[in-house]
Amino acid sequence: MTYSLTPRNEGNLPALSAPPLIRLDAYVAEDGSTVVNGHLLEMGGTRPPNEAILDAIAMFARTLGAPVAATVIDRSVLQVARLRVHPDGSSRTIADEEDLPPGRERTAAEEEAFPPLARVERIIDHAQRGELHAASVLASALREHLTLRRGAEDELSLEARAIEAYLAYQRGDYMLSTVLALTVARIRCRTDLNRAAPEVARATAAWQRLTDDGQVATRGQELLHMWEHLAAEGMPLEPAHQAMARAVRSRLERSNRSLPAPASAPASAPAVTAGPGPVAPEDTPLNPTRRGLRRFTRRAGRSAESQS
What does pTM read for this prediction? Predict the structure, then answer.
């Protein structure tokens, strides 16, 4: 890697007061599983996720000899926290407007330091070893941070969401798999019709495993609309995809739910149109960063390791 992570002073040493140049990232899942820079942390005992995150980031700051910026997505409290962590272990939270300004050069530097593709390989390794929970947590962390940084319609964000949907399917969480896959399909139907059919097919495969009548009807209506939209746009559908479309309609008919006419969109399904839209309405929004969050504020020299 050729990018310098921190400015150098005249003695060719890290400038201790230098502002951070890149952000690290951390993620706390709803069950407390914790990820830092694409690595699942071994929590051990009752160690709180916030302490584990601060210790890991402070270690990175000590290695650089300079302050480190970090963005923490904490799904356990539905919040984003933006941090400054110093080599002495001290940390503080800042507001969104104080965060490092966005830019292509900064994004490139962050992704060069912690490549998304390397994280995908780690996710695949866990999945191949049958460690589906670990793989799923890592996939969620990757998707959340890519979406926060690049937006839900970004290609990498979509790929991460598709991986997460596949892992949910493998774990038997067909509702989550359907929701995630439907988002990918919805975006493809609006932005790239040539790549939409396989994504609609993946969403259909997960939907076929649902047992809740209400979810079968609601999600099925949207799937049917997507298949009909692709046909109306003249997109060639493979025989397997045509069979899937017929299966969706047949199942809805068997459930005695009223179906819309093929030419009109059902009221419960989002319209498939070009241009920006509510790309991931089922993603629970995160509360913005607040200054002085106590769980991420620490004085110099404090750490879980130093207290043990």
Answer: 0.83
